[in-house]
Amino acid sequence: MYRHHELIHRLADGRFHSGQELGRLLDVTRSSVWKKLQQIKQCYKLEIDAVSGRGYRLREPLDLLNRQTIMELLRAEGIEPLPALELHPSIDSTNSWLMQQGANGIESGTVCVAEQQVAGKGRQGRTWISPFGRNIYLSMLWRFEAAPIQLAGLSLASAIAVLRLLHRLKCDRAGLKWPNDVLWQGKKLAGLLLEVAGEAGGPSQVVIGIGLNTRLDGHGEDIDQPWIDLNSIPNIAPFTRNQLVSRLIRHLRDVIGEYQAGGLESFIEEWHRHDLLLGQQVVIRSHDREHAGEHLGIDGNGAIRLHADGQERSFHAGEVSLRRAPDESP
Description:
It is a single chain. Helix content is 29%, strand content 26%. The strands form three sheets. The chain has a seven-stranded mixed beta sheet with strand order 3-4-5-9-8-7-6, with helices on both faces. A five-stranded antiparallel beta sheet has the order 13-12-11-10-14. It folds into three domains: 2-58, Winged helix-like DNA-binding domain superfamily/Winged helix DNA-binding domain (Arc Repressor Mutant, subunit A, Orthogonal Bundle); 67-273, BirA Bifunctional Protein, domain 2 (2-Layer Sandwich), CATH 3.30.930; 277-324, SH3 type barrels (Roll). The protein has helices at 2-11, 19-26, 30-44, 67-76, 94-103, 154-168, 241-262, 268-274; strands at 48-51, 55-58, 85-88, 111-114, 136-144, 174-177, 181-184, 187-198, 204-212, 281-286, 289-298, 304-308, 311-315, 320-324. The protein starts with a helix and ends in a 6-residue tail after the last strand. A hairpin with a 3-residue loop joins strand 1 (48-51) and strand 2 (55-58).
């Protein structure tokens, strides 16, 4: 696998590289280079062009992650001490890896990022599409003295961290959809998945997982809902994936500190300001039942407040889903 990654890094610029050059890089024959490139195409679903007399190139260049660059950017963000950072070329799931390592005592604040997930997880058992060298797949582990039940609102607060990052990129029309989606003009741009473990009375460990679409292109065909990526949004500030990772870590750490100091209450006004469905007619689906009414916002525990049939009801995330009510006008 290490040899594969050397080849991918050499080809990441999208230019042609001769078989002779790549053979020298790996100290193998040209025929061995060709075989390894076929393995890369199969393992990572990367399109590689082969042209006689010119060599090989990736059909599209890749903006690859670099651990040293991310750490330098974190220093520039003023983060001290620097967190432990694990960078994986390919992994089943950054969340799963951190949950496993958390049980083995890995330090609080550890971050796991990957170029590719082969079993990325979304809410309610969905798969998160995670092509190689595209998008951000990032998870952070944090330990709390609080009981797991006291961390119910952290998912919503973490979504605000993503939104702050996007606003820093001048992606001003991004907004929030309860409980943990970030949308742009009704299309999914990012999603979060939090996993919590701990004793009933504390302490707890939380893994905050974030998937942010940066450039999906044809890889989004299997996504079962409208989606968008940063590359398709006009007029946002230029970025690299390394910059996105470092800034996202900074915003997550800020949000965790604010949550520890004031709970979700300190985020409610900011959440409501960016809640795309606030005040609208919505439908909440819970198991085999549907509840229609006006979305009144969130409470201090992260539950959604719904006004229906003359009374207010609250619903917690769990297995509940939210959507805009269909337009019944003629």
